[in-house]
Amino acid sequence: MLDLRSRSAMHFATVHLPDDLDPESIEVSGEVMSRLIAALRPIRRNSNKPVLGDSYELHYQAGMNPTTVFVRIIDDDKLAFTWDDFNYVGGNPTEFQAAIDSVLESSRQ
């Protein structure tokens, strides 16, 4: 899978779940990371509040660009996420949770 920012293939991708779910990072495929990132669309608005504390952490590197995205499910219809130094609200929590559930299932096998 290609990263849109660097137009390079992802070298690694991991998901770190909130500590109450699993304290370890889980390695995922570029395809799974792309599903998680796709669930962050559409962006409804920018926010001045960064995602702090217990959250999902998406880590990947494409080219020379390591990226971390912090994601929190706000309610049934929106996510809050911090990507680099920018904060957003929007996305599709149902799709995001489905992708996280698939990560959890595959990590238990």
Characteristic key phrases:
single chain, 109 residues
Total number of helices: 2
- Which strands sit side by side, in order, in the main sheet? 2-1-4-5-6-7-3
What kind of sheet is the major sheet?
A: 7 strands, antiparallel
| Unreliable stretches covering 5 or more consecutive residues | 1-7
Q: Categorize the overall geometry.
A: globular
Number of strands: 7
- Write down the overall mean pLDDT: 87
The proportion of residues forming helix, as a percent range, comes to 10-25%
The run of helices and strands is: EEHEEEEEH
Radius of gyration from the alpha-carbon trace, in angstroms: 13 Å
Distance from first to last alpha carbon: 24 Å
Structure summary:
This protein has about 110 residues and is an alpha+beta fold.
Write up what this structure looks like.
- It is a single chain.
- The protein has 109 residues and is of the alpha+beta class.
- The chain is built from two helices and seven strands, in the order ββαβββββα.
- The protein has helices at 30-38, 93-108; strands at 10-16, 25-27, 43-47, 56-62, 65-75, 78-83, 86-90.
- It has a seven-stranded antiparallel sheet, with helices on one face.
- β5 and β6 (78-83) form a beta hairpin.
- The longest helix is centred in the last third of the chain and has 16 residues, at 93-108.
